[in-house]
Task: structure prediction
Amino acid sequence: MQRTPEPEELMDEAAQAQAYADADFNAANNLFVELLEQSPSGTLQGKLLDLGCGPADIPLLLATRHPALHIDAVDGAQAMLDLAQQRLVNETEAGRRIRLLCEYLPSPRLAHQNYQFVVSNSLLHHLVDPGTLWDTIKNCAHPSAQILIMDLARPTSELALDALVETYAIDAPDILRRDFRNSLMAAYTVNEIRDQLHAADLDYLDVGMVSDRHVAARGTFLPR
Ligand SMILES: C[S@@+](CC[C@H](N)C(=O)[O-])C[C@H]1O[C@@H](n2cnc3c(N)ncnc32)[C@H](O)[C@@H]1O
Result:
């Protein structure tokens, strides 16, 4: 199936951000955390950068589970960060270790921060230029940092797309069903991500499907 880019890169519309924040992404979020916890660094401690953090569900999960983790959670949409801020207020200890940053990528302000972890869920398919994500990793990650980039994978056919929407968004509000469909159509395939990594000189990262609808690129950052 041919790729159709997202209509909007940022999720800065209040109703769209609210619908996203209200949705149940527990399965994807837990999968993401599980994959990161499998990383060879053992315990998760130090500085972690989450790119395109949305309402900060993943940063909160990580900060709650890993008390020595300090997280910079970045999004270009203030509407999303306002919702994230509301969540952090109720999470005194973990919330104190999460810094919300309104930055539109590529952002020179994030460069040279030497993060031990650079992660992102569901951002890649939003970007006008996917190279922005890979360049940001190269500019921000500490040598030997752990990288985890997860996203939806574009289905092979309209039929497969309809089946995923039916399976995972059957009871979702219209706005979310529309967003899920748009995201699947804008997502990249495993092979396209391999090509992007090759072009970015990051082709040593491991890429593959990690669920029936998610792809992940992960591994240790080895600057050349
Ligand atoms: C689908 S949401 C994913 C949110 C979160 N990572 C999650 O897993 O729930 C994608 C987020 O990326 C943000 N985004 C898209 N393009 C961006 C850019 N160029 N710079 C910063 N944030 C961006 C959007 O505003 C949106 O909040």
In short: The chain has one domain: 14-220.
